[in-house]
Amino acid sequence: MSNERNVNGSNSKKEQLEQFTTDDRNQKLTTNQGVKVSEDEFSLKAGERGPTLMEDFHFREKMTHFDHERIPERIVHARGFAAHGEFQVYESMKEFTKAAFLQDPEKKTPVFVRFSTVVGNRGSGELARDARGFATKFYTDEGNYDLVGNNIPVFFIQDAMKFPDLVHALKPEPHNEMPQAASAHDTFWDFVANNQESAHMVMWTMSDRAIPRSYRMMEGFGVHTFRFINEEGKSHFVKFHWKPVLGTHSVVWDEAQKINGKDPDFHRRDLWEAIEDGDYPEYELGVQIIPEEEEFRFDFDILDPTKIWPEEDVPVKIIGKMTLNRNVDNVFAETEQVAFHPGHVVPGIDFTNDPLLQGRLFSYTDTQLIRLGGPNFHELPINRPVCPFHNNQRDGYGRQTINRGQVSYHNNSLAQNTPATSTEEEGGYKHYEEKIDGRKIRARSESFKDHFSQATLFWNSMSKPEKEHIIEAFSFELGKVESKSVQQQVVDMFANVSTDLARGFAKAIGAKLPPEKPNQVTKKSPALSQENTIKLPETRKVAVIVGDGFKDLQVNEILDELNRKGIQTEIVSDQLGTVTGRDKAELEVKHTFLTADSVLFDAVYVIGGKEEDKNFYKKATHFIYEAFTHYKPIGATGAGRKLLDAAEMDKSPGVVIGEDVQSFVPKFIDAITAHRHWEREVI
């Protein structure tokens, strides 16, 4: 098509670009009041590593506008699901913090946890390649404490000033509102290439971490550096971790895309069903702690949100466990109306000058004002603290408290100056008295400027299959990018991480290959690889493929033994109802080949049916082959053995053949425990 308008009246891409050039390209950036902006990268701080200042009118205007751009769903983290539970500390943390809920091992603190994707809208699929939110509200006796984190320990940007830009680039492109819940498009990768502090986070999102198997098998991180303050007023820097008891596991990309079509509610269904079945998800809380006097002993800035503290350098101390044991009663009233805020802290937990955290301390409350209709969102049942709260705040949209009396101010004499403030000894919150000495400046510390060392550390730490998946992820994402310039910029950028990585996906997308050079960083962190995660068979879901006329053998004993080991077995056949074996044994069918798919299960057990039932075996073969190509464990007994023989799968890793309980079940459980069998050759 030429420069003419096309038949439906829209402008061609060239015309759109020309219009952009005329209207915007040669203009200067201003505030909404028309004031020219001298700096749009950094928020105003008290010194390069100091806190963000409230007088930064440009930051507040930019962030306020962003916070109020979309209604009624969350701007980010719109697609979420949640559950109730409890937290219990293993041992007193009195040495480090005076936070009461971290003192008594006998004390159970109620919690509410919301998991979410970041980019997609409320109707999007849950298996998008994306970071996942992992937000926990602790209803403590001292007030609510919110640990608002993600399943990835770093973030794309270093300063909250850039957050609106990041999300604008990630969201569907505004000219056509596509693509939904995906980063595989031009504006996101253009942002990445031109904001290279994103390198480390991009490595995580291109890894298997961005497509988790389950919320129950997903790590959580507080991302930022916070402070622990003890009774003596001593400060330690701290990072928070949630470690899933079941280990950290993922699906493969082909599975993720198919699951989004087969069951876009896959993650929430998995969480809901696990809790309903009594398989309560468990997570251990870990902390990394650095004494204040050791702040500068590392080769990275501990306040930089694009950096991890490698666990080999700063070990994770496991201090407690969270158990999710109750589903929500109403998704809207609880999951949608819950309001998290990293500024909701209790005595003993305080902030640092991480410039991304400093901006979040403003943004979250500002966002809730429009999402939840005004300043009284704290009175919604899901947000109310379990301890009493008293203050002089009055009225506003959605007010539920009926205040009595004539006094609504402090100080006063008419009500004997109540409610009164509390001393620190009485539990009053006191901010850590950090010394601040710096000029008011828009800048970023020199210590924040290394964008590639930890991205390379992440790459070095991956196993061979994980590296292959990362290259494939880049190849897919950039294969969807139309701009050849953006593609090449990304290749050149990630050559700074690893030329093996960059050359791998450059070849796939037809870009110019960067010259080979050795990695400047050789350090590894084994804790970063999912190859080293905990592997347990409990709660794994096995599809049992069986049809009428199956050879009974010891089928019921095998299924019973798998169930005793905590493995869930669900019968899949060509029709619902009951299938009957040769010796009249009966099995209740839960799914048909039409309503189920191999991508919804962790493993497949093939029993088979009548040999003459060609239609059954045709459907079963497709089901099994797909599981095989996704490297899943496959077991077979009876007629199922012949099916695997015919498909030449029988001698492949992770494929278990047997006839009786003793010879089959232990080996099949071992195969399930391994999660995937990457050594398998898939053609």
UniProtKB/TrEMBL annotation:
Swiss-Prot/TrEMBL catalytic activity: 2 H2O2 = O2 + 2 H2O
InterPro entries: Catalase, Catalase_AS, Catalase_clade2, Catalase_clade2_helical, Catalase_core, Catalase_haem_BS, Catalase_immune_responsive, Catalase_large_C
Official protein name in the record: Catalase
One Pfam family in the UniProt entry: Catalase
Cofactor needs: heme
Ranges where the record places region Disordered: 1-34
Bias (Basic and acidic residues): 12-27
Protein EC: 1.11.1.6
Signal sequence range: none
Catalase core domain span: 30-418
The organism's place on the tree of life at top rank: Bacteria
Residue ranges of the TM segments: none
UniProt keyword annotations, A-Z: Heme, Hydrogen peroxide, Iron, Metal-binding, Oxidoreductase, Peroxidase
Top EC class of this enzyme: oxidoreductase
GO molecular function: catalase activity
Composition bias type Polar residues, residue spans: 1-11
Species for this entry: Gracilibacillus xinjiangensis
Family of the protein in this entry: Belongs to the catalase family. HPII subfamily.
Protein purpose: Decomposes hydrogen peroxide into water and oxygen; serves to protect cells from the toxic effects of hydrogen peroxide.
